[in-house]
Amino acid sequence: MSRIIAGAAGGHPLKSVPGDATRPTTDRVKEALFSRLESWDILSGARVLDLFAGSGSLGIETASRGARQVVLVEKAPKAVAVCQHNAALVNKVLKTNTVTVQRGNVDSVLDGYYNAISGVPSKTFDVVLMDPPYPLAEEELAITLEKISKILAEDATVIIERSARSPEPVWPSSLEKFADKKYGETHLWFAEPV
Predict the structure, then answer these.
(1) Where does residue 19 fall: left (phi above 0), alpha (psi -120 to 50 degrees), or beta otherwise?
(2) For 29-79, how does the pLDDT look when each residue is reduced to its tens digit (9 = 90+)?
(3) Cβ contact 171:177 at 8 Å
(4) Matching PANTHER family, A to Z (predicted)?
(5) Which pLDDT score is estimated for 144?
């Protein structure tokens, strides 16, 4: 069973997505990731986008640690239901509606956040968490990263979780990797707008 590690809702259990269609982030990786993000002091008051959210545990952890707005994006019906359950739990504990769930394809949701006609994003985010399915092709990931780069705040951070066997993502010219770290079978990549 997954849980919220720290913050205002720390210790609360989270529902998991049934079956093996999703791959939950291990507690070890989650603790290391959030230790790093807290040391950079980027979560307090942040607007967070959690793509391929699964159970929503990463985005929900940011809410517990002080993010002011968290959007969980997921398309699988079972995972959406779990995201909604977990979002309701953390919102009740925090006594706010910090976490919302948006059902849909990640690229379509990203397209909706960016108005191509005016060239102005309708939403901007300070932190983007991505845990795409490992089979997602590198070309598809590159297209998604290009779309993400258009809705980022100036000093935003993008975090991608991939298999340790996956190659480094192909970064668009508008994003630059500034760190990465392997944890067993998991590789985290960190990038920022340039």
Answers:
(1) left
(2) 999 999 999 999 999 999 999 999 999 999 999 999 999 999 999 999 999
(3) yes
(4) METHYLTRANSFERASE
(5) 96
Q: Classify domain 2-193 at the CATH topology level.
A: Rossmann fold (3.40.50)
DSSP state of 106: H
Q: Give the contacts of 73 (CB within 8 A, at least 6 positions apart).
A: 49, 50, 51, 52, 53, 102, 104, 106, 109
Task: Look up residue 181 and give its amino acid.
Answer: K
**Strand pairing class (186-193; 152-163):** antiparallel
- Outline where the chain has alpha helix (H): 27-39, 57-64, 77-94, 106-113, 138-149
DSSP code of residue 1: -
- Predicted confidence band of residue 179 (pLDDT cuts 50, 70, 90): very high
Helix axis angle for 27-39 and 57-64, nearest 10°, is 40
Give the separation between CA 60 and CA 48, rounded to whole angstroms.
10
3-state secondary structure of 96: coil
Edge-to-edge strands, sheet with 186-193: 99-103, 69-74, 47-51, 125-130, 152-163, 186-193, 175-183
Structural domain boundaries in the chain: 2-193
